[in-house]
Q: What sequence folds into this?
């Protein structure tokens, strides 16, 4: 049934990316100076979860690297690496530049120096940029003469409200690409491309693809997870075809896999906060902070914790109710 399992993975970048042609053109224009050996214009990609923000960022950078040997790219997901040192080390490691560096015991300036010393231009893709513990990380990267920032985020207004005046000035003129959720026809087309790349012909019909697209409600990550879960069950049951009934049978598993994937992305502090809420089912803010401080080896500041909890809520890993001292954090049902 499967010809290429990579096509069923959420981080797979297809060779052709449809339904985002205008956004691709905008980002390609923004990064074009890099092809001539100059720093490109910084850019943001905004949009809801599952709109393809990370995929389009990787796709455009891949296109550029195919034509330019002197371009290096690093990727960091701030959900996994929020602190300044962690984020910079992740960029260096992803770019293949950390061969003699260790994250523990190394100052963040060493990672910045490694990026600065790269021959040619460096593109830093910062995913979930709004989760960074310290936005000075962006300032430090912006100041490097060979770095172009490509930043991925859910909400433009919220992000810029958190920026100080200097950052608002730095990035106010940056290119801003805004993505909407996919329509059902677009979602069906995306799934069709994944099927063509990864499954044998005849495995799934158009009606079932459209059914999955409708269930996904414009979220490409959900659509791919629903398809992958149905394929996994078909392999276990030795079925030759993916049907709508099979999709229904495996929908709960697919959504559980999506949550598990999100949890795996969390760094130590975010995961501890998540687990404390999961264990209790519901916790008041004061109790949650007290339990966190009791169990964390190196607790982050309370303001940082509140930021992390807000991000966990944005991605549906926890629910919030109330405000201030009466705020409650709840395990989603």
A:
């Amino acid at each position: 049934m499967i010809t290429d399992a990579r096509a069923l993975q959420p981080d797979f970048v297809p060779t052709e990316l449809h339904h985002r042609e205008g956004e691709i053109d905008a980002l390609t224009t923004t990064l074009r100076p890099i092809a001539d050996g100059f720093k490109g214009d910084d850019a943001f990609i905004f949009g809801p979860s599952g709109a393809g923000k990370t995929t389009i960022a990787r796709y455009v950078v891949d296109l550029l690297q195919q034509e330019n040997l002197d371009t290096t790219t690093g990727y960091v997901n701030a959900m996994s690496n929020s602190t300044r040192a962690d984020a910079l080390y992740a960029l260096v490691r992803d770019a293949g530049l950390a061969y003699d560096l260790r994250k523990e015991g190394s100052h963040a300036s060493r990672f910045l120096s490694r990026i600065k010393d790269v021959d040619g231009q460096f593109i830093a893709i910062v995913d979930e940029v709004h989760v960074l513990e310290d936005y000075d990380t962006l300032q430090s990267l912006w100041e490097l003469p060979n770095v172009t920032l490509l930043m991925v985020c859910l909400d433009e207004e919220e992000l810029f409200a958190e920026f100080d005046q200097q950052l608002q000035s730095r990035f106010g003129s940056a290119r801003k690409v805004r993505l909407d959720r996919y329509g059902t026809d677009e979602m069906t087309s995306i799934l069709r491309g994944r099927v063509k790349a990864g499954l044998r012909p005849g495995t799934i019909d158009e009606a079932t693809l459209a059914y999955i697209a409708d269930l996904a409600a414009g979220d490409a990550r959900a659509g791919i997870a629903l398809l992958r879960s149905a394929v996994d069950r078909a392999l276990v049951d030795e079925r030759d075809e993916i049907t709508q009934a099979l999709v229904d049978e495996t929908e709960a598993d697919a959504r559980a896999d999506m949550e598990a994937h999100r949890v795996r992305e969390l760094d130590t502090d975010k995961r501890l906060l998540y687990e404390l809420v999961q264990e209790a089912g519901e916790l008041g803010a004061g109790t949650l902070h007290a339990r966190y401080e009791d169990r964390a080896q190196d607790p982050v500041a309370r303001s940082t914790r509140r930021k992390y909890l807000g991000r966990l809520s944005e991605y549906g890993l926890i629910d919030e109710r109330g405000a201030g001292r009466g705020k409650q954090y709840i395990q989603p049902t």
Summary: The radius of gyration is 21 Å. The chain has three domains: 20-178, 184-263, 266-330. The chain has 14 helices and eight strands. The chain has a mean pLDDT of 94.
